[in-house]
């Protein structure tokens, strides 16, 4: 009985606790979806990006509608802003976990790159090696287009074999033809890939 009296006291529990939590959660989901949608748009995912955009806009309208109905409640403003910040964090975190897409890794070194090139070929990484001229003389430019999820492993291999190499990484919008490592019963197999 005392608990019911406490709950029904002058504190408006719905407007100052439940509604702000709902708006916070809605903004986390809304902004997380927005972050993912932008990534999917940049990767030309024509069906997934609009579907996510629809859900994102619907959640945003519901959250903003509640705020406009309760303009005198400053707790809602804080919940809205905190949900926005948390949603950005969650979107970036999820995008990192999904590791979608392809990247080109450029390795430039003045050292002998034979061991690295052979390792990449043996492990079915596509590799192109070019003799080039740098500021300090002749260098070897090694290009590999890889699945984004393979980037940490490739960077580790390059660092182990050529610790002084210059490495740059860039997203790839589209590819046509290529070979990428794919786990198949614990082994790497060659997978022809056509993607635009």
Describe this structure in words.
This protein is of the alpha+beta class and 196 residues long. It folds into 2 domains: 9-98, no CATH class; 102-195, 2-Layer Sandwich (Alpha-Beta Plaits), CATH 3.30.70. 53% of the residues lie in helices and 27% in strands. The strands form 2 sheets. A 4-stranded antiparallel beta sheet has the order 2-3-1-4, with helices on one face. Helix 2 runs antiparallel to helix 3. The chain is elongated. The termini are far apart.
Provide keyphrases for this structure.
196 residues, alpha+beta, 2 domains, two-stranded antiparallel sheet, 6 helices, 27% strand
| Beta-strand content estimate | 25-35%
- CA-based shape: elongated
Total number of strands: 6
Helix content: 40-55%
Please give the CATH class of the largest domain.
Answer: Alpha Beta
Query: Which parts are unreliable, with pLDDT below 50 for 5 consecutive residues or more?
Result: 184-196
Distance linking N and C termini: 66 Å
Largest sheet: 4 strands, antiparallel
């Amino acid at each position: 009985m005392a608990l019911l009296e406490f709950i029904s006291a002058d504190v408006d529990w719905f407007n100052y606790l439940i509604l702000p939590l709902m708006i916070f959660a809605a903004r986390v989901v809304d902004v997380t979806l927005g972050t993912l949608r932008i990534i999917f748009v940049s990767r030309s995912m024509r069906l997934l990006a609009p579907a996510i955009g629809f859900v994102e806009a619907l959640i945003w309208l519901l959250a903003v509608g509640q705020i406009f109905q309760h303009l005198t409640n400053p707790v809602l403003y804080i919940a809205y802003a905190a949900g926005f910040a948390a949603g950005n964090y969650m979107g970036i975190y999820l995008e990192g976990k999904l590791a979608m897409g392809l990247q080109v890794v450029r390795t430039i070194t003045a050292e002998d790159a034979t061991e690295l090139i052979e390792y990449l070929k043996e492990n079915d990484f596509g590799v192109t090696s070019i003799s080039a001229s740098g500021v300090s003389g002749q260098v070897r430019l090694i290009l590999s287009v890889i699945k984004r999820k393979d980037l940490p492993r490739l960077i580790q291999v390059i660092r182990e074999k050529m610790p002084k190499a210059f490495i740059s990484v860039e997203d790839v919008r589209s590819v046509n033809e290529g070979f990428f490592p794919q786990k198949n019963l614990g082994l790497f197999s060659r997978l022809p890939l056509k993607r635009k």
